[in-house]
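User: Fold both of these, please.

Assistant: Here is the first one.
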Amino acid sequence: MNIEIDHLTLNVESAEVCVQFYSTILGLTPENHDAWKEGNAKFPSVRINARNMIHFFPPDMWEDMGDLICSPGKANHVCLAYTRNEWEKLLQRLNEHDITINGPFIMTGSRGKGTSIYITDPEGFTVELKTYELI
């Protein structure tokens, strides 16, 4: 089988705050952010890599799509994996912005064991940040 995760969608109160957090702090690239701010897109996103992204659905999307997109209490966390070099830069940004870090922990992910820390985004969603190089 050749299956992969395409995107993760989060229902958020403030899509703007989330785009800023995920791009400035976590280093992801905003996508369709300007179009959304101009009213030409329904929601903003951030790109994880060429094949994966996170969409931020603001409250008006919840109403528009209703039960199609809402599964309360079902999400646990998302994990983003970084190279060792990017991990070091990430830790600096987290410290610069006084982001509370839980860990590090040795955790198993899709590629085996790695070093993980956990943070909470501005909407209260848990984000696992991992490097597969044990630290």
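And the second sequence with its predicted structure:
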Amino acid sequence: MNPYVNMGVGALLGTVFVLMSVSIASEGIFHSEAPEKEGFAIVAAEAAAEGGEAAGSGEAAVTPIATLLASADAGAGEAVFKKCQACHSGEKGGPNKVGPDLWDIVNRPVAGHEGFSYSAGMKTFAEGGKTWDFEHLNHFLLAPKKYVAGTAMGFAGLKKDDERANLIAYLRTLSDNPAPLPSPSAEGAEATPPAAPEGTAPAAPEAAPAAQ
């Protein structure tokens, strides 16, 4: 065999041997055992997941409407109603605009105003014979597109409890026979939001607060 080949092979084997020896020696010198107990546990991901489940398990708590209406001001609600008038009329026998006329809206069947073409989302929400009782109005006016998935109403909602309660108190007056106010003693039952279809949509620019 060529002596140069022998020298090359020997050099290669020697290099491999040296590298393996250094690797084994380094492992022995720098190796450390895993601690029996971690100094701290990273739980951010788990906590976030648990929070997500909690958030998705139901709607955020909303103050019962009976409590809100106990101190509501219908006169102040009439001023809030001006936000609605671009899309809704409020007089008896009033015309439908972008949204339906809101006369006698309290306890009216959902998607039940004659002559108005309701969105598919509102028709779905109406299934089961729902009516616009005080509690449904409270949740819907808080976040329309969250409470009724697919509604065509482009309104971001009234986030302030007093403003929303004042408006509902005023809507109650738009009737020949205003509905009785809910009793605050029933607020334990009202604390659970009425059933609504799931779904979330981005908030749209503020327009008119009513059922479309």
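The two ends are 95 Å apart (CA to CA).
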